[in-house]
Amino acid sequence: MTERYLVLADGTSYAGQAFGSSRETIGELVFSTGMSGYQQSITDQSYNNEILMFTNPLIGNYGVNRDNLESQHATCKGVVVRELARRTANWRMLTSLDDFLQQQDVPGISEIDTRAVTRHIRQAGTMRAALVNKITETTVAELQQPLDGSSLIATSATHNAYPVPATGRRIAVLDFGLKYSILRELTKRNCDVMVLPPTASLEEIHAVHPDGILLTNGPGDPQDVPHQTLALIRQLEEQYPLFGICMGHQLFALANGATTVKMKFGHRGFNHPVRNLETGRIDFTSQNHGYMVDRASVAATKLTILLEEINDHCVEGLCHQTLPAFSAQFHPDAAPGPHDTDYLFDKFMDLIDRHPVHN
């Protein structure tokens, strides 16, 4: 196997074995604590521009299949694993993880002590990193250049509207880099869905005649999103029931006067406990975010904190005090799971039924 190196911006480097694409890459190194769901994570557009490291020691043992894609094209910059499975088997499997990453032009590195790298990131914070086939004098210098995240949503979201037809409630989905699992949850509830690009105007949304608006997940810093998008969200929440997920949650917060901040190393994985502050209910959630809503900034808005992460008290959900609008920082559409919080889609349906729109 070909040798490959993981090089961090602080000069720390690790030698491993190459798999996937042969190209070199630079991105923000992040880690996920999920024990399964590597295919869903790799094709999650929220990982756009990031090098994704898995803390589970064995990755790739059930290959890649058609059903577990969250998008058609992976936009993560690279994949880091402790051990790449040498034998893969599953009745739905179409190809191996190695072959899939070659097809997607995503480089990978194995035989890395991912536990040591994760501990390093937890102490030093998320940082830029490179996957290179040879360390040169300029490798670390290149890592000092800032990443441009301003166009990430543009490279992840749809550019054209498209329907996912059914006969139930009509939902306009504003796509910032959506996961297919969101559409699957809406389809389970017989929703008539129209997916719209993030550049859609208020008039284009009106023309869909929606019963509700869903703001999806997406990559990058929410503060890079144009001010006109925040103005649009303010208009939408006054006219339609609204539900924001992940990036949609952060944009909902910004549109209502709260602020967001970058986290030291973020929340990524399928085992984050979240408490509902209204009911006391505790659920395990699927999360993938490197930014969060500044808790102190919520006090000056018309928003109420609905959900919080138990370990660090990060804001995980908001609701508007006077309008039928709410949000969740995590993924209630969780794939492969856990499915504790898919009730939030039912909450959205109930909100639509209690606040009918007269189109």
UniProtKB/TrEMBL annotation:
It comes from the Bacteria. The active site is at C246, H331, D333. InterPro entries: Anth_synth/Amidotransfase, CarbamoylP_synth_ssu, CarbamoylP_synth_ssu_N, CarbP_synth_ssu_N_sf, Class_I_gatase-like, CPSase_GATase1, GATASE. Its EC number is 6.3.5.5. The keyword Magnesium does not apply. Signal peptide: none annotated. Residues 1-169 are annotated as: CPSase. Pathway: Amino-acid biosynthesis; L-arginine biosynthesis; carbamoyl phosphate from bicarbonate: step 1/1; Pyrimidine metabolism; UMP biosynthesis via de novo pathway; (S)-dihydroorotate from bicarbonate: step 1/3. GO terms for biological process: 'de novo' pyrimidine nucleobase biosynthetic process; 'de novo' UMP biosynthetic process; glutamine metabolic process; L-arginine biosynthetic process. PROSITE patterns: GATASE_TYPE_1 (PS51273). Gene3D superfamilies: 3.40.50.880, Carbamoyl-phosphate synthase small subunit, N-terminal domain (3.50.30.20). Keywords: Amino-acid biosynthesis, Arginine biosynthesis, ATP-binding, Glutamine amidotransferase, Ligase, Nucleotide-binding, Pyrimidine biosynthesis. L-glutamine binds at S46, G218, G220, M247, Q250, N288, G290, Y291. It is an enzyme of class 6 (ligase). It catalyses: L-glutamine + H2O = L-glutamate + NH4(+); hydrogencarbonate + L-glutamine + 2 ATP + H2O = carbamoyl phosphate + L-glutamate + 2 ADP + phosphate + 2 H(+). One of its GO terms (molecular function) is carbamoyl-phosphate synthase (glutamine-hydrolyzing) activity. It holds the Pfam family GATase. Residues 2-132 form the Carbamoyl-phosphate synthase small subunit N-terminal domain. Composed of two chains; the small (or glutamine) chain promotes the hydrolysis of glutamine to ammonia, which is used by the large (or ammonia) chain to synthesize carbamoyl phosphate. Tetramer of heterodimers (alpha,beta)4. Belongs to the CarA family. Small subunit of the glutamine-dependent carbamoyl phosphate synthetase (CPSase). CPSase catalyzes the formation of carbamoyl phosphate from the ammonia moiety of glutamine, carbonate, and phosphate donated by ATP, constituting the first step of 2 biosynthetic pathways, one leading to arginine and/or urea and the other to pyrimidine nucleotides. The small subunit (glutamine amidotransferase) binds and cleaves glutamine to supply the large subunit with the substrate ammonia. This is Carbamoyl phosphate synthase small chain. The gene is carA.
